[in-house]
Amino acid sequence: MFEEEKQKLEKRKNVINQVEIPLDKLQMSVRNGFEKAKQEKTRKRMIAKRSILSIAMVAILFIAFVTSVNVSPAFASKVSAIPGLDRVVALIQNDKGLVAAVEHDIYQPVNVSQTEHGITVTLDGVIVDEKGMVIFYTVESKEKDLSELGYKYWRVKSNKRSPYEYSMEIRNSFYPLATEKGLKAFSSSHRIESRYKSSLPSEGHRLEIGIINGDKIENFKIPFSYEKINNLESKTFTVNKEVEIEGQIIELKFIVVDPTGMKLFLEAKPSNTKKFLYGAFNNIRLVDEKGREWSTHADSYYWEQNKFTVSVPDSFYFYSPKKLTINFGKVAAIDKDEAYLLIDTNLSKFIKQPKDSIFSDLKIENNQVSFVIDVDRNKEFVYFPKITNEREEEYTFKYDDSPYYPSTQYVTSSFTDLPDGKTKFEFQIPPNSKQVRLVLDYYPSWIEDENVKIEIDLQDK
């Protein structure tokens, strides 16, 4: 029976070989912590870092996956039996948690399409649990070059309030559906995380995608429902173990595991001399007693100053490991007394900045501050969420593509990539401010110690 399924997969592989796959995609990501202060280059860099493998190698990975000796009979049977699932294979083949979800009948096909002016969007299917939803979709066109089409918005809406509602609007930038000329089809996925358990109806949802087609916006609204699957309760493992990294104490409080992903809850001691930066724990790896590995998201986030919630998009929900080693790798951190810039706007000079500074060429003209950051933002990133003046009045930096909240005080700002690989940052001086303090939340400062780890016996949990 397994050989028969593999033969069917081989036939599907030949069909896939005839479909061109883009080398990049715009996978919109949920921003739980700094949503109101994001700007287009932040999103562009982090999205690319997180998603390029699953899309750039879709066709190759599909071929490798269906011909691999590691393909389980259960998974091969599912791919053969479920229409449209072959398009999903390459998107999940490196995600052990989602592969297991398919094997355990959690993937739910939708296969609903809408066509507007020669462009077809198909919602292939969803994987849903109490804490997350993964949506798989395909865009194709026989008439259009996908590199000439762009995203305008990406939303999930519901007739009733839902923990999975999500909206990402693109205001002043053009994000192409594909970066390579001549592409006609690609499949993609998008993961939405919920902070709380869903007990709401599973019907009445819709996927909304706005696609820029010349001077028009093609609006796709695809309704979908999903069946609630019982016995998918979150698994919580209480840990309460501390680890020391160059004198800094971090405690792993607990791990929450769901089929669509996991979360690690960490707390840094207030007495630490270093500030852990946004994305501080992007390099955490979880390894079980069999050598199976799960890696953290490319964008960890924190709720409060010393409390971090780190996303792991993969999951060991269906694998039931007995022991787990948490390897921290390098951690983004900076001395607390260096985690900001202080600028005198009257003297046009830096009063305070980190040692080995990457900031230079400070200028102030027409109530506008500019300086150069010596960093290639395609590799590293510096980001300022807010600014305060000498009266402790706080303002949020408003970037071109960040959302606007009426109750927030803003100052306009922008990043510009320079020809020499450096970056120029500009911002408006808040009213009547003689000194301004820029908080550093993203900065290329690392603690590197490959030996830092926590051992957990899950059989005791």
**Total number of β-strand segments?**
30
Amount of helix = 10-25%
> Count the helices. How many?
6
The coarse silhouette is globular
Strand content: 35-45%
The structural domain count equals 3
Q: Provide the low-confidence segments as ranges.
A: 8-70
- Main sheet: which strands, in order across? 21-20-28-24-25-26-27-23-22
Largest sheet: 9 strands, mixed
Walk me through the structure:
This protein is mainly beta. It has three domains: 2-224, no CATH class; 235-335 and 446-460, Conserved domain protein (Immunoglobulin-like, Sandwich), CATH 2.60.40; 340-439, no CATH class. 14% of the residues lie in helices and 41% in strands. A nine-stranded mixed beta sheet has the order 21-20-28-24-25-26-27-23-22, with no helix packed on it. Strands 4, 5, 6, 8 and 9 form a five-stranded antiparallel beta sheet that branches. It has a five-stranded antiparallel beta sheet with strand order 10-11-12-17-16, with no helix packed on it. Strand 20 (340-344) and strand 21 (349-352) form a beta hairpin. The model is unreliable at 8-70 (pLDDT under 50).
